[in-house]
């Protein structure tokens, strides 16, 4: 069995503005259908991902626990 090439970087959250994953740039439909795509179809999608990722808002939508803790340490320390 061969491995299926994937752009996934395990940052699985979709930008609600663009509909693209913050990590890989795919849409939900592309992510869900990835396993059923032919290698050619996957290459076609992967070719457009860099341009898509340029349109994704990179800031977190909400403050993460890590960010909050760092901020609190900075204020207290």
From TrEMBL:
Region listing for Disordered, in residue ranges: 58-77
Pfam families tied to this protein: DUF1289
Source organism superkingdom: Bacteria
Descriptive protein name: DUF1289 domain-containing protein
């Amino acid at each position: 069995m061969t491995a299926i090439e994937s752009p996934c970087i395990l940052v699985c959250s979709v930008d609600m503005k663009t509909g693209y994953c913050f990590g890989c740039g795919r849409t939900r439909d592309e992510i869900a259908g990835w396993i059923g795509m032919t290698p050619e179809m996957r290459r076609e999608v992967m070719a457009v991902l860099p341009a898509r990722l340029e349109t994704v808002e990179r800031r977190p939508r909400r403050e993460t626990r890590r960010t909050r803790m760092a901020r609190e340490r900075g204020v207290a320390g």
